[in-house]
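Dear H.,

Thanks for agreeing to be a second pair of eyes. The structure we're designing against is below in token form, covering all 562 positions.
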């Protein structure tokens, strides 16, 4: 299901971000993410309710048609008059108290517009449902609907509230025999003429008033439901009896109707629909799958460099990339929070000493049994031989004129490279100690182009700049697997609609849809295809690459995140 955050919601997010800036980036992200989660889940619930309401309305139309067909097929001695009408009403109501539970309501009744010499209703003094063609038809239809058309609603264990309304006219009742078909009743609570009361009736005394007669008509219907309707043997049923005695006489006042309310009727279907909506939602920042934090042998280092003082422009969405990747590591991959470290806008020394050394020490104490995941988002640079480097946040060079409008001189390139961290050097640092596996994710531009396609520093005009030459294939030793958002000489773009880099967005989407249970081969194949397709649709072709060290050349495809 396609989903685009509305402008109103975006303005709300911007406002929330401004309010919580004093709390720090992580706290601001958490507050904004929580608000988005609430807004989106509210919309999910509204969508589910709307779809279920449509389903209930559709069922009512089908049941009304089936009722018409069934009534026409009844034998002559059970047929209803042409002007008689069996009414079916269904509805979906939300339980009060904000529980989100949805109740299904089914009401079936009979009415006749014109009374002839004979009647579809009870004769005076009768109470068995079979003595009323109208009540018999209502019971038969109820059985059909519960057992067939609504079988998925009246499932085992469901709580069903059964309301039976039965009435009598003002014809006097005097010693009508009661055969005891439904047992003796003593002070049973009912509503009689809309007021709570208690009714008793037994075989010895028989039926001596209209309240008892109306009550037994309701008991006859209850007996039918419990003995003839298969589903009712497995549902948890409770009954309410509403009896009424009219002041007028006539068969049209001797009737019964049935109302069934299934509590939390669509719990399983509602959960399934919500899960589907969440899974299909393209926004990866919300409804992140949660697994137990039991991935005790995985250690994660996240590095996000998006602010370089005044030297380079801010790199959009990098902070969001890193923060949401962190959330997936903690929630979906089940990495304990103590085993994850995030560094933001850091220099080369901090990457080495606070990041890589932290991993080195952990691999020593775990005797090389740990898995390492490193994620980097930010700027990069190519040296004179086109080898890729991570640009730390504190790089500094003298700049003449406006950066981004003038080519980068060889001298300044060399100075930037000197302050930067080579990918090969990082990989060597990671293979200097034993580990079960080492995975490096890069969502970075190394070619002097920004995420929006503008130049960070343009190529030289008179001759080709070194950064425009096709880089040589990066060779990595050891057991490192590198997933890069694009070839090092190509551009990695921002997926503006989703506020992520293309590569990071589709990586997170794979984790969301699979709940973290997928191989590296499936992940990379799907991410590569999705990034290539979506970026090409937007006129920004980007093709991710994978590089494996010699030891993982034949095994990386079967590696997993957990």
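And this is the sequence the design step returned. I haven't edited it by hand at all.
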């Amino acid at each position: 299901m396609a989903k685009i955050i509305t402008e109103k919601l975006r303005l709300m997010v911007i406002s929330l971000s401004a309010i919580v800036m004093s709390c720090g980036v992580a706290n601001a992200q958490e507050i904004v993410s929580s608000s988005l989660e609430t807004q989106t889940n509210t919309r999910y619930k509204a969508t589910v309710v709307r779809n279920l309401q449509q389903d209930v309305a559709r069922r009512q139309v089908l049941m009304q048609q089936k009722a018409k067909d069934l009534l026409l097929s009844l034998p002559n001695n059970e047929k209803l008059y042409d002007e008689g009408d069996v009414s079916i009403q269904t509805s979906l109501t939300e339980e009060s108290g904000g529980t989100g539970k949805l109740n299904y309501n089914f009401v079936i009744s009979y009415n006749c517009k014109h009374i002839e010499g004979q009647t579809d209703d009870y004769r005076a003094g009768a109470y068995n449902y079979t003595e009323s063609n109208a009540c018999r038809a209502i019971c038969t239809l109820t059985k059909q609907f519960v057992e067939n058309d609504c079988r998925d609603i009246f499932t085992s264990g469901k709580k069903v509230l059964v309301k039976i309304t039965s009435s009598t006219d003002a014809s006097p009742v005097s010693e009508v025999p009661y055969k005891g078909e439904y047992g003796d009743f003593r002070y049973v609570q009912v509503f009689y003429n809309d007021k709570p009361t208690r009714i008793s009736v037994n075989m010895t005394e028989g039926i001596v008033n209209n309240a008892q007669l109306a009550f037994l008509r309701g008991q006859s219907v209850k007996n039918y439901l419990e003995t003839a309707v298969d589903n009712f043997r497995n549902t948890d049923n409770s009954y309410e009896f509403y009896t009424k005695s009219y002041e007028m006489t006539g068969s049209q006042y001797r009737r019964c109707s049935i109302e069934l309310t299934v509590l939390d009727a669509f719990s399983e279907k509602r959960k399934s629909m919500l899960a589907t909506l969440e899974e299909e939602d393209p926004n990866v920042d919300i409804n992140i799958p949660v697994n137990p934090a039991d991935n005790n042998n995985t250690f994660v280092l996240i590095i996000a460099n998006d602010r370089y003082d005044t030297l380079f422009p801010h790199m959009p969405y990098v902070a969001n990339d890193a923060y949401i990747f962190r959330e997936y590591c903690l929630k979906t991959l089940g990495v304990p929070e103590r085993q994850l470290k995030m560094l933001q806008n850091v220099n080369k020394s901090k990457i080495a000493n606070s990041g890589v050394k932290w991993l080195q020490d952990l691999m020593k104490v775990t005797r090389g049994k740990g898995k390492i995941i490193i994620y980097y988002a930010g700027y990069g640079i190519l040296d004179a031989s086109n080898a890729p480097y991570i640009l730390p946040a504190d790089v500094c060079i003298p700049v003449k004129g406006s950066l981004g409008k003038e080519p980068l001189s060889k001298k300044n390139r060399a100075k930037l490279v000197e302050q930067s961290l080579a990918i090969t050097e990082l990989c060597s640092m990671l293979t200097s100690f034993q580990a079960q596996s080492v995975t490096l994710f890069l969502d970075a531009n190394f070619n002097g182009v920004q995420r929006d396609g503008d130049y960070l520093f343009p190529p030289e005009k008179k001759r080709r700049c070194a950064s425009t030459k096709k880089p040589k294939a990066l060779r990595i030793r050891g057991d490192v697997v590198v997933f890069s958002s694009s070839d090092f000489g190509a551009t990695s773009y921002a997926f503006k609609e989703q506020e992520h880099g293309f590569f990071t967005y589709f990586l997170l989407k794979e984790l969301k849809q699979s709940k973290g249970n997928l191989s590296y081969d499936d992940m990379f194949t799907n991410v590569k295809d999705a990034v290539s397709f979506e970026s090409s649709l937007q006129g920004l072709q980007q093709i991710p690459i994978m590089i494996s060290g010699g030891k993982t050349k034949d095994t990386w495809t079967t590696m997993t995140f957990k």
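Two observations from my side: The first helix runs from residue 7 to 19. The radius of gyration is 36 Å.

Warmly,
E.
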